TrEMBL record:
UniProt name for this protein: S1/P1 Nuclease
Keyword terms, alphabetized: Disulfide bond, Endonuclease, Glycoprotein, Hydrolase, Metal-binding, Nuclease, Signal
Signal peptide per UniProt: 1-17
Length: 277
């Protein structure tokens, strides 16, 4: 049977991050960490935020969307040489820069959208802007979204991307395993995505090493395809569980920081709005 073209195209796209569950967890942790002022805007809208947190992964039929979810560091010479503006990115590596990922700039844009939403006084707009911002913030906390070897293709570990961000989360993550961290105002929030990405990038070597270690007992079928069993997943989770939980916790915290700072930037608007006199 011929594989439909659409499926081939989908397979060629960069993989989505965290899966739906991880994106929902990020939102839940963030809202839990908010102080009462901004938190009031989301009362009764928590599900709305979570339900739309994966929307950007469904926009990938637009070929410009894929690179909005990651940022490859190697083309720039590693984490110490990252460009801060799109102009710098172009100057460093030329017209190819967009394909290497633009997530930090997308976060800046979506954060400004959230400020506008708070200013508009429309709580459903705030919920939607938060959901979209949450997606890209969460993506920066997936280590494999910071490297050209994003699916282990350079190290013979194809599929490690979804094994880490979806496979482990879906199998083992339980909501009460992670406590939300309280939001902190951060006037430098627009500079933070680079810090989040660098911290994620530092986790890549151990993640790949642990996947290889977990795979040591994995048998191959006649075609050389790995037949991963429960043993693989248990070993991978034992080694990477703390990193998965830690990154989700940080994603929630950093999203909460971004929401709090957007609310402050908008002039700390109250919800519900005061009655007109
Ligand atoms: Zn994504």
């Amino acid at each position: 049977m011929k594989t439909p073209l659409l499926l081939l195209l989908l397979a060629a796209l960069p993989l989505s991050a965290w899966g739906d569950k991880g994106h929902r967890v990020t939102c839940a942790l963030a809202l839990e960490g908010l102080p009462p002022g901004p938190r009031a805007w989301y009362v009764g809208r928590e599900a709305e935020v979570e339900d739309h947190a994966s929307d950007p992964d469904h926009w990938r039929s637009d070929h410009k969307e894929g690179p909005r979810h990651f940022f490859d560091m190697e083309p720039y010479g590693g984490p110490d040489h990252l460009p801060r503006t799109l102009e710098q990115a172009r100057a460093q590596i030329g017209g190819d820069y967009y394909r290497k990922g633009v997530v930090p700039w997308i976060i800046q844009d979506r954060w400004r959208d959230l400020v506008d939403a708070f200013r508009s006084g429309d709580a459903s707009r705030v919920a939607m802007a938060t959901a979209i911002l949450s997606h890209y913030v969460a993506d920066t906390h997936v280590p494999l979204h910071t490297t050209e070897n994003h699916d282990g293709q350079a190290t013979g570990q194809r599929g490690v991307h979804s094994r880490w961000e979806s496979g482990l989360v879906e199998r083992y993550y339980s909501q009460d395993a992670v406590k939300a961290l309280p939001a902190e105002a951060d006037p430098g929030i627009l500079d933070r995505p680079w810090d989040w990405l660098r911290a994620s990038h530092a986790l890549v070597p151990q993640l790949l090493e642990d996947d290889r270690a977990a795979d040591r007992t994995t048998p191959l079928d006649g075609q050389g395809k790995a037949l991963r069993s429960q043993a693989y997943w248990m070993i991978f989770w034992a080694r990477q569980g703390p990193a998965v939980k830690g990154q989700l916790r940080l994603a929630g915290k950093h999203l909460a920081d971004a929401i709090l700072q957007a609310w402050i930037e908008a002039g700390k608007p109250g919800w519900p709005p005061p009655p007109r006199s």
